[in-house]
Amino acid sequence: MKRLKFLETKRTPRYSLRKFSVGVASVLLGVTIFGINFTNHSVKAATTESVDNSSANSRLQQTSAAVLTTAEQTNTQQATSATETVQQTSASNNTTANNSKEAATTPQSSPETQGSADTDINSSAAKLAATVDQNNTNTQKATSATEKVRQGSASKNATANNSTEAATTSQSAPKTQSSADTDIRSLDIRSLTAISAARLAAKNLLAMPDTDGNAAGTPGTVTGTDRNAAVTVDKDNINKQLAKENQKLANEHNLSSSDNYSSNIYKGKDGKYYKIVTIYGNDYVYHAADIQANGTAFGQYATKAEDTKNNINISKEDLGNGKTRWTVVFFPHKGLQNVGSNLSGLSSAKFGIALTNDYQIVGDVDMDITTDPNQTFVAHTFKDNSNRSTDITVSNPSPEVKFSFNPNTDVDPNTGLINSKTMPAYNNQYLQGPYYFNTDAYAGRRNLWQTYFEDGVEYNNAYDENIPYLGGNHDFHLNNFEIKNKTGVDGAKQGNKIIYDTLGYRLNSKNANPNGVFSSDNFNQAMEFKSQGVTDQSQFSSYKISFTTQHTDSHEVELTTGPKNQQFSGIAANIYSFQNKYYNMFSRLYGEQRALNPAGVVKQANEVVSGWGPAKEAMGQIKQDYLNNAQINVLWNKILNNITDHDAVNNIITEGNSLNDAMKNLGNSIGQYDPDGSFADHKVDTTKASDRYKYANPDKQEAYDNATEVTKALINKDTGTYADQATVEKLTEAENKAWNELKVVLANKITPKV
User: Fold this and answer.
1) Which residues lie in Polar residues bias regions (predicted)?
2) Which helix (H) or strand (E) holds 279?
3) Which pLDDT value is given to residue 447?
């Protein structure tokens, strides 16, 4: 299936705030540097975060700055407000800094009133002794009884305490592009912001106003009580505030968090929670899915959804930014057992997991096997590179055995056989022929379909029909399975075939289930396993499989739909075993499904979330040509959270349009948006090719480079961080000042004679 190319960065968290502790002040890009005005842009009280610094990269090492590391630094921020008021006006700031004498430090910029950018950009890097926090704890608390959008003034207090018993560290950052002529969309925010945050802070490029939200009346628009955009960062310098709340709601309501702020989770009009993905202005509504489907072979007609749950246990933990840790336990009672039935040991029982293509496995897949040590069983073991098995009796099975494999390094790319030191395919007493298939190549597609979906038996590997599957046939017959849920499957009912076999149609030009529900073509990877045991000496074991995935919202919305708009995203865990004269065929689909009404029509966001329609209309009144996506996201949440307050919404619209104009001016400070050539001499390539740059003093060159890197990072549409209007204007002023101060120094131009 051809994938549409969205402009998002796949599996890369977006709008991240880069955190560096430099000198005596902890510097947040988009907060101290960008002066981000997160005065409760969205909803809940700020959370408490413990963060560690990640290293910056090698380019910082190339500067002449002496970089030191503080042993510990704790920054506790608390804010309490009964009524928060907003106005863009002057603020008074009080700053206290306490520093121990054990290390020489250069005080960094303290908060000051807006409109001031007269920090000395010319201070040389040689004078810098920057402290980089390695153990920084940032605690933010905010309580608000009444939050409204008004005009007012602000007073600010800031206290910084830094211990400076330090050891020297080295920091590095990848080289970044320095030309505005380069496509700004392609710039790497990680390199740009990492360099710019540390270098600009160290050089006191800007003295920003207090924007951490801990001062009463911080300029900005106060929002409602459903979402919080206050500043919190993790050890990788990723903005975690909206993402942190997104993660919390994902865990509470069994949904997946956004990988790049393209989705949010909302409480619907019906009291249930929904995830709404917005791509190019289109909204897609999803809710949690836990679906049971069982086979229709002899003896299966009487099984129920509860029997499936009794044999397959699934849980997941959302790790934030689209990452999920899945745990699937097959045979949790150490054997097959339907509700109210006796426990049966395993006899070559097949079990596996297929994933839809909006999830990709990150790192290793872990398997933990727990076995009844008092139950002997027969194992079919295989010598290296042999398909002939030798039966052995395992008389003293280990109570616990651990295996793992990496899909990228431990799988035969042709046959799909998993074979490594950590999960051997041969001489394995607990597994027969472990396989991992993906749909990248024809053999993988064919293997995945004929083992997982086809309602038939295939003994030979699709890569080479002369090679049998190790351990015999691997088949799950998912095309045969029918939904057992009485309710809860949108666009389907109990008894419908669970699979709409589009993958089979693609491979065989025929669809085995034209009236099925969820498309088989959406499953692009599957891991498949087989137990040991025979009828009279079966294996009493439980298999727990754990792995981490990265989810991408834009891939989810493009998943193939069923004949009635049905769409499923997540994993399908399956069991197939014929033993004791009965078939055991269970499937559990766990994840998300597209929200449909009873007629099978997709639900619109405005049908689900209160105020969505008016908020979209209001957002349409904000010009967004020059705003980055992080700024658009913040403005959207502010509008949605204040949609019942007409004056507040009008203020946010005005704020957004002014910010758009400010971002245009910032871009033009490096000649980015210049159709008539008015700013042609400000283009970075042009500037760096000029004598005024080439023969300027090094500190002036560095000041210009620093300012330009921050500018390019911020105007990046896809990866730029949030910054308010005051911050953008200050950065524009700094960029222009740095450009204007580039002057030819005659001594630099004259080449001494040798």
Assistant:
1) 107-125, 132-146
2) strand 273-279
3) 97
pLDDT of res. 752? 55
What 3 state SS string does 183-228 have?
A: CHHHCCHHHHHHHHHHHHHHCCCCCCCCCCCCCCCCCCCCCCCCCC
Query: Is the Cβ–Cβ distance between 208 and 73 less than 8 Å?
Result: no
Q: What is the mean pLDDT of residues 236-259?
A: 79
Same domain, 430 and 532: yes
Q: Does the pLDDT value for residue 187 go beyond 60? A: no
Q: Count how many domains the chain has.
A: 2
Report the distance separating Cα 201 and Cα 130, nearest Å. Answer: 9
Whether 14 is covered by a domain: the verdict is: no
At 751 the pLDDT is 60
The amino acid sitting at 740 is N
Residue 399: is it exposed, middle or buried by C-beta count within 10 angstroms (0-12/13-18/19+)? Answer: exposed
> What does the block give as tokens for 638?
């502010």
Domain of residue 344, residue span = 269-594
| Three-state DSSP class for residue 574 | strand
Q: Is the dihedral of CA 599, 600, 601, 602 positive or negative?
A: positive
The structure tokens listed for 94 are 């009080």
Q: Who has greater pLDDT, 90 or 268?
A: 268
CB 158 within 8 A of CB 110: yes
Residue-level length of the chain: 754
Name, in order, each residue with C-beta under 8 angstroms of 407's C-beta and a sequence gap of 6 or more: 361, 365, 436, 438, 525, 527
Look up residue 438 and give its two tokens: 């993906």
Q: What is the distance between the alpha carbons of residues 129 and 66, in angstroms, rounded to a whole number?
A: 5
Beta-sheet pairing, 523-530 with 350-356: antiparallel
d(CA 81, CA 104): 37
Q: Is the pLDDT of residue 324 over 80?
A: yes
DSSP state of 452: I
Domain boundary among 534, 567, 594: 594
Amino acid at 665: N
pLDDT in tens, 680-714: 999 999 999 999 999 999 999 999 999 999 999 99
Q: How far apart are CA 605 and CA 747, in angstroms?
A: 66
Q: Does the pLDDT value for residue 502 go beyond 80?
A: yes
Which helix (H) or strand (E) segment holds residue 649: the answer is: helix 646-668
For the segment 450-476, what is each residue's pLDDT rounded down to a tens digit?
Answer: 999 999 999 999 999 999 999 999 899
Cβ atoms < 10 Å from Cβ of 146: 9
3-state SS, one letter per residue, for 352-367: EEEEECCEEEEEEEEE
Residue 216 confidence (pLDDT) above 60: no
**With contact defined as beta carbons under 8 Å apart, do 140 and 212 qualify?**
yes
Q: Does the pLDDT at position 321 exceed 60?
A: yes
Are residue 107 and residue 206 in the same domain, yes or no?
yes
**What pLDDT was estimated at residue 164?**
36
Q: 158: which 2 tokens?
A: 């800031």
Amino acid at 74: T
DSSP letter for 300, please: T
**Is 627 found in the same domain as 543?**
no
Do 355 and 431 fall into the same domain? yes
* Secondary structure letter of residue 560 according to DSSP: P
Distances in Å between the Cα of 682 and the Cα atoms of 102, 334, 529 are 44, 70, 62
Rounded Cα gap, residues 80 and 328, in angstroms: 43
**Phi, psi dihedrals of residue 492, rounded to the nearest 5°:** -150, 170
